[in-house]
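Before going further, learn to read the protein records used in this course. A complete example follows; check for yourself that the lines match position by position.
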Amino acid sequence: MRTILDTSNVFEYLAKIKYCDLADCNTSKIAIINAKNFNLAIEFSDGRHLLVKQERLPDPDNAYGELWTAWQMQRLVEHFADFGEQIRNFLPKLLHFDPDNSISIVEYASDYGDLSDYYAQGNRFPIEIAKSIGQLLGTIHSQTFERIDYQQFLHPDAATTIDKGYADEIIKRLGRITPQILRVVPQECLQFFKLYQRFPSLSRAIVELRDAIAPSCLVHNDLKINNILLDLDWQQPGSPIIRLIDWENVAWGDPAFDLGCILGSYLEIWLNGLVISNTLTINESLQLATTPLELLQPSLSALTNAYLENFPAIIDVRPDYLDRAIQFAGLSLIQRVEITIDEHRVFGNRGIVMLQVAKQAICTPQAAMKTLFGNSQS
């Protein structure tokens, strides 16, 4: 994969674009951050922190990739000043973008940490955090809803037929389970495809979900807890509690997909903590999870309520909107199973349970709503 920066020449590059002096390399700390991009975190002696991100591009003739897409989000926020004023502080601060080499420089938020780490360390889920996520997401969706000027800014060359986007790609991929795929998948992972194909109602519901996709606003398209930063002093008033990062998939899409993905990300916390044993039934495994669903339900409810308070019009336009969001939450779980198979070549009892929960969400979203939020909240 093509990259031009590493620890030996990054300071030379930063000095060239006036972000530091070459002498700073002797007094600064630098660290490589493991990610799909080649990331370098730099701490200068004067207290400044920068994150230098470089996309690994396989084609030297095509310099534009996901980081260019994320830069489009920055341009959009700058172009639409009123919108930018509302959400700018909740986004990463992009300082520089080099399109020829797909390099971006971001102000590293040293006073923020990964929300996933916060949840994992204490197994605590304050509703204020979830509420902040719902408020931000509802604001982004409501402020860009059916705004053709935003859509044309993102996709100036788009045809009159709207691309159904990332959600559509996932659904199409699920529909292409061929004998060729079955031949290259490890034997222990074939059960996923056998189970998936065993439920015609699931594949029908997924096709119906695809037909119902309604692109209508700006969407993050990769909304999960791993892409949210939390202020280390979030309980102190004054600064935004969260920041929403990794906008490499931002596009014009269906807002229910974003809402469903973040709900599905919370469900993953529950499902990843299952106690798996051949002596336990599925229900027993779910009840013995290290993070019980009951612990997550207040956050799921707070997030959804805050979202709807900031975007109440969506229910008038789409009365089945929450059903669709729940279905997309299920779809995100299936996607997670796929990723585990692709990256780790594993599909075990946890994957089976995740597929069962996903099936309920996709096929019977009203019943799944009671599972997610609890009977009283539903």
Observations:
- The two ends are 48 Å apart (CA to CA).
- Strands lie at 29-33, 38-43, 49-54, 93-98, 103-107, 112-114, 217-219, 228-231, 242-244, 251-253.
